[in-house]
Amino acid sequence: MMEITSYHLKLSSTAVDLGELIMEKIFPAGFEVRELSDGSFLFIGYSAAPLSEDKRGKESFRKASPAEKTEKTWRRLLDMLKHYSSDLLNSGGYLLRKEQDLEVDWVKNFQENYREFYPAPGWVVLPPWRLEKFNRTRESSSSLKKIIIEPGIAFGTGTHASTALALKALTDVIGVSGADFSAEITSLLDVGCGSGILSLAAARLGIKQITALDRDPEATANTRHNLSLNQALRKNSSFTIITADIRDYASEYSGPGYSLIVANCLAGILREILPQLAELLAQDGRLVISGFQSFQEADIRSCLRREKLKVISRSQQEGWLAFILKNS
Question: Which CATH number is 123-327 given?
Fold first, then answer.
């Protein structure tokens, strides 16, 4: 018998990115995200503890009691909320509660509630268990660009506005390459790849050489897993998945520069890594950044001027922004 504790974190739509970041740190095995009728989002994570003792060898081995495990998870969650309290308060605050039950079929519950979604025109993102039914029941499915993502391990599955903006910008840039650019886009660097959704989208759009970079080994492992779910993309695209900080990667990079770079990161991270993004960008390349909010735009633009990067396109969704940039 297991005692299951569920942790419910309610946030406004402008704090979804932070919510995913927090839940990923506390519940790396997965969590649920539900959009509520009032436009807010509910994040639900679970912890489980056995209600019995075990013996290993001659010594008694006692696993953490349900109360101890619940308290540890609760403290970690509170510490994370405290760490991001300023950003959360600026986004409307949060509500947090926990519930306990004896048994929950979390996997069944999660899969029953998770459906395909359409992050940008012409795109659909599906969990692997929905693909067969989707292809069977949707007459127009063949006209959509499909990406299969295993949800719940690393953030960036496409449900958040910043990922949708980055995906649309990626589509726009690649769609006009050759007509608007002096050089064809052949290589992409995905900085902070998370689930790998943008790398997979680039391959779906025909980019031949793709590098996915993240300093979190769980994120790059998730990217590899999602790539394995999209095996057809390996036929025409070469993938390199690297676990590293972009500052270390840039210091060792000696190539010609990437014709396209995409970075879907929070504003604070973007400010820190813009020098490396500019350094890694080919002279006639394009840079897509997303993950910052409208009240942070002036600060981001100031950083862009220092790096001599020019905004050539701006898009907005639910208070989040994305820029397409080039060297000035």
Answer: 3.40.50.150
